[in-house]
Amino acid sequence: MKIKIKNILLGCCLAASAMSYAQKEEAQPKNIILLIGDGMGLSQVSAAQFYGENKPNFERFNNIGLIKTSSAHQLVTDSAAGATAFACGIKSYNGAIGVDVDKNPVRNIVDYASNKGMATGLISTSSIVHATPASFFAHVDSRRKYPEIATYLPTSEVDFVAGGGLQFFDRREDGKDLIKTLKENGFEVTTEKLPSITSTKKQAILLADDAMPKMSENRGDFLPEATALALDHLSQNKNGFFLMVEGSQIDWGGHNNDADYLVSELIDFDKTIGVALDYAKKHKNTLVIVTADHETGGFTLAAEGTNYHKIKMEFSTGGHSATMIPVFAKGPGAEKFRGIYENNDIFTKMVSSLNKKEKNQPK
Ligand code: MG
Ligand code: ZN
Fold first, then answer.
1. Which of the residues 126, 262, 267, 327 could staple to 248 if both were Cys, CB 3.0 to 4.6 A apart?
2. Ligand that lies nearest to the alpha carbon of residue 76, given by its number in the listed order
3. N-term to C-term CA, the chain
4. What is the pLDDT of residues 146-195, one digit of tens each?
5. Active site residue 17
């Protein structure tokens, strides 16, 4: 009788542990796509609902959370500290690019992913040396040091990059030719237009001297198309990939208190989210995360006076605000992104997925 009970208990334990193992297996993404809408608060996201032509891709997510975005030294973060929190997992000071409060370099997610044999990519509608993308490959004490930030790219672990910033590579005051250095480090460099097919080499696609044009200045489908190209490129790696995609200019529409600028950039970003989600639908082992570094403009969708039939888009500042920022996640491990937590936990949650991968998948 005693033995029987033991067996039953043992059986239960085995079943339970087998189940939790299966759940862990499920929660392991092979690929991570992180989409950052710079300056994108909840009112900006809500604008997609009122001003987009199609049902917003934001509505395709089933796991939603909120992040607190204050930086180490300021209540209201900038994009450098915000991106450094995502890229390196630490709260630093406003202006910090991949460095801590003492200006020491901190290992970033690109290095973690690359160390696990994954491919990595960065895409931005700003210059690639601008604060958000820069925090994923450079370690510099000030976001304004664009020429110095650029020197980090050729020897970084990044395999695919697309955006603006050509002048910081080919027209430098120090006379260095960073296009040559990129090529020496195995990059195929493109400066004319987005290639229609991907390369087997690493790719650096630098299509503007500084920022990419605004949507209203005929940027067209650069962001969704560069994202599709990156997914093609990075999929060649059997160990999976990490891709960061930034809709940079949602922030600039907010700074300019220009609602049309903001909305056109937001709709372009939503379309790009669709590309990532469509890829993840076909490749179920892909985790897609959408969030922002902070809100910009104190943007609101206010009623026009007492007329509740009409929305008047309004701003309360030319700078950033401290409001919590939504996080949308879908795919293996997405439930981890529910709840209310700090912005640097985005990094922790992504890296914990990668660490599981290392434990359970033989090299
Ligand atoms: Mg940015
Ligand atoms: Zn900003």
1. 126
2. 2
3. 46
4. 999 999 999 999 999 999 999 999 999 999 999 999 999 999 999 999 99
5. no
Q: Are 105 and 84 in contact (CB under 8 A)?
A: no
Cα dihedral 83→87→88→89 (10° resolution): 80
Give the confidence band of 361 by pLDDT, cuts at 50, 70, 90: very low
Q: Which ligand is nearest to the CA of 41?
A: 2
Both structure tokens of 85 = 């929190």
Q: At a CB cut-off of 8 Å and minimum separation 6, what does 272 contact?
A: 35, 223, 224, 227, 245, 247
Distance 124 CA to ligand 1 centre (A): 8
**Residue of 79, 248, 321, 353 with catalytic role:** 79
CA of 135 to the centre of ligand 1 (A): 10
CA of 250 to the centre of ligand 2 (A): 9
* Structure tokens belonging to residue 96: 């910090």
The bound ligand whose nearest atom lies closest to the alpha carbon of 78 is 2
Rounded distance between C-alpha atoms, residue 249 and residue 263, angstroms: 10
In this prediction, residues 17-45 reach a mean pLDDT of 79
List CB contacts of 352: < 8 A, sequence separation 6 or more.
336
Ligand 1 mean position, distance from CA 38 (Å) = 5
